[in-house]
Amino acid sequence: MEKQQSLLQRAWDYTDFVSRGDLDGIFSVLEPEPIFDLFPISRRFIGKPRIKRYFTHFFSEVQPRIKGFKSRSELIGESSVGHEYDITVSMPNTSALSTHRVFALIIFGPDRLLGERIYSDEKMLRMLIGPLWNALEPIPAD
Amino acid sequence: MRASLTKLVSVAVAHSELESGNDLDALMGTMESDPVYDIYPIGKRFQGWDKTKRYYRHFFDVVQPAIQGFTPVSQAIGEKGVVEEYDIVVKHPGESVTTTHRIIAILTFGEERLSGERMYSDDKLFKLMFGPLWDELIPIPPS
């Protein structure tokens, strides 16, 4: 119970660090080998160097494009915390705004956070992942 | 007045168990009168009692026999619903090998029962799941 509470606290801290652009804070709550899984495309990226590239891109290219954000639900489980939201963004090379549904699960590891599982459409995922897109790996079958 | 969270969670649990059976009336008994099923990322839906009944009839007759395996990945609870994430192994009609699909589904709470579901998965699985309803899906209006 205490451990669950501590992981929940880390998940909230993580969300706060992401919104503030605090890369050191983000890494302080992640396990040493974080994993980010993307669905339904079933691709992933693993490890601190790639996570760092992802967030560097996120802070410089994605955050400035976010024009609106509406929370749809928040769910808490034994192994994760889920946030479902609509995000309105200005995509590159267009002046029009588009709204995308995203379901992001923050995954608990043994002591810290293991990473995220993100469900969204390919257009949104491509924008989110940016230069890492071509480095994504298939998620192996268990 | 809205039922308690405990009561709504128990309805969701019953709904999940009934989905693996074949009792359509009992399953529909867990739903409110005008259910809404939203699917993402394609952003489409169907709505209403009759369509929901058709969906589950198709689910029992066609989808259940195609399911070869099922692995729960995670479960979570919120004020607005219960989420279930799992890998489902399916033998699609006309194919000789199975395909594993990841799906995450939120069973959404109504006043006393479930108001529907929001599901996130790939089009291939959704086409199988929705069968004859696929061509009747309508875009989810902005809210």
Write structural notes for this entry.
The complex is a heterodimer of chains A (142) and B (143). Chain A has 142 residues and is an alpha+beta fold. Chain A is 35% helix and 41% strand. Chain A has helices spanning 2-20, 23-29, 48-62, 122-129; strands spanning 30-39, 43-46, 66-77, 80-90, 97-108, 113-119, 137-138. In chain A, strands 3-4-5-6-1-2-7 form a 7-stranded mixed sheet. In chain A, strand 5 and strand 6 (113-119) form a beta hairpin. Chain B has 143 residues and is an alpha+beta fold. Chain B contains 4 helices and 7 strands; from the N terminus they run H-H-E-E-H-E-E-E-E-H-E. Chain B has helices spanning 5-19, 24-28, 49-66, 123-130; strands spanning 31-40, 44-47, 67-78, 81-90, 99-109, 114-120, 138-139. In chain B, strands 3-4-5-6-1-2-7 form a 7-stranded mixed sheet. In chain B, a hairpin with a 3-residue loop joins strand 1 and strand 2. Chain B is globular. The model of chain B has no long low-confidence stretch (mean pLDDT 96). Classes of the chains: A alpha+beta (142), B alpha+beta (143). At the A-B interface, strand 3, strand 4 and strand 5 of A face strand 3, strand 4 and strand 5 of B. Strand 3 (66-77) of chain A pairs antiparallel with strand 3 of chain B, so a sheet runs across the interface.
